[in-house]
Amino acid sequence: MVGRLAQHGLAISVVSYGEVYEGLLSTQTRLERMHQFEAFAATLDLLLPDILVARRYGEIRAVLRASGQLLADNDLWIAATALAHDLVLVTRDGHFSRVPDLKLLPHSKEKEPAQRVAGSSS
After folding, report:
1. What is the tens place of the pLDDT at every residue in 82-107?
2. Nearest to 23 by CA among 98, 87, 104, 116
3. In this structure, is residue 25 part of a structural domain?
4. 3-state DSSP call for residue 112?
5. Residue 70: what are its φ and ψ, rounded to 5°?
6. Could you identify which of 31, 66, 115, 120 might form a hypothetical disulfide with 91, taking C-beta atoms 3.0 to 4.6 angstroms apart as the criterion?
7. Terminal C-alpha separation, the chain
8. For residues 15, 42, 95 and 55, what is the CA-based torsion angle, rounded to 10 degrees?
9. What is the distance between the alpha carbons of residues 36 and 59, in angstroms, rounded to a whole number?
């Protein structure tokens, strides 16, 4: 999947980067896996929160709170980043479908390792 998406450009949210990094800390082969991840991440645009992302975060949180369907804060930041940058979020997490106007590309865990455009690490 990464190969097919690369022609369109790939990016990762700093929040997703942190989630992946945290997950790698608990693996048996963490040093090897961290090096692999860092090499891959170096080919991506790293997206940092800014005022536009923060506003989208607030808007999404308000809408989801009103409907009683809040997501975890990290997932809200990931969704806000994708929306603010007009990106498609590649994820295995179905709960992102609750976010209005978020463009999603579902990713199956069974087929290949998960990588996310503007990403979600869960």
Report:
1. 999 999 999 999 999 999 999 998 77
2. 116
3. yes
4. coil
5. -60, 150
6. 120
7. 17
8. 50
9. 35
Comparing 117 with 25, which gets the higher pLDDT? Answer: 25
Indicate whether 110 pLDDT > 60.
no
73: containing domain: 2-106
Residues of the chain with pLDDT > 90: what percent? 77
Domain count, the chain: 1
**Rounded Cα gap, residues 25 and 1, in angstroms:** 25
Tokens (6 digits) for 101: 């106007």
Query: Hey, how many other C-beta atoms are within 10 angstroms of the C-beta on 97?
Result: 11
Hey, which residues does 12 pair with through a beta bridge?
A: 46
C-beta of residue 17 within 8 angstroms of C-beta of residue 46: yes
